[in-house]
């Protein structure tokens, strides 16, 4: 099913997700080639490793934090108590507990690193994985190869790239954006009301939940890469950025809203992809841009910490019920198999059937290396 001028996109709880692209004619005629796909769940704000995938129940309270942990479908692996659905599905996942980077501890550096594999310097913008796929894709089904849902990441503190553009690959490889609006005068795509009510409800009536459902619909229609931004900003709204006081969020917000939203939407996406026979050919990656400080701050929150965090993979040929790496006893740094963001990006390329060591010809004697100095995480694959 391709994008048409009559398809309407409606998302429960979040209004309509309307297509907003500066060159609609280009986007409507470009297409996706190949059978493999990527859904990247960008957990904007930087989830705490201790309050998600890497709890430390034996650590002191100022490290452990206020939440408990629960057993999962993988013996010996425990995760946060507010992720019960994901705990039941842990035997379908590869969990990486040793992500880290040594760049500046700001949101934007992490956004760039986990989506492009490289850090832009002096105004450089390296291309998102989806833009590289757009460059390599052949037209198919009348759909764009790369879509960002519901819209690009907005202001998160520093006015530099978030790594969700085509960079030097140019306008033709830019993502097709979806923005939230109450109504849309423009072209719309994929009417979510065509889904059974039970399916829509299974994802949760939230923007992120309905965005994950839309990601499944887009992949099913031939889109190769969908980036779902859980949040567009970290200011004056609930997000993963849990410094503990306004304009940021608290760990109470994690318990009341953020963790349950992720738990419902992520688990529904896995179930839906598996039931439709799409999980083996679709890699799902859930990651933030960094972790949080291993000790609570004076406000009961946690601050930025690129020293270690966790990422989750599912489908796309990856292993099931597998844990890669580990953090130390306080979740402050990797203690086993450190993983750099560039390795995660190389893993995305590998799953998509693209050699991450190759370069793209930009013309006029210029070329662009996809990933420099990093190999795919081979132990992630079955």
UniProtKB/TrEMBL annotation:
It comes from the Bacteria. InterPro entries: Alkaline_phosphatase_core_sf, DUF1501, TAT_signal. It holds the Pfam family DUF1501. PROSITE patterns: PROKAR_LIPOPROTEIN, TAT. This is DUF1501 domain-containing protein.
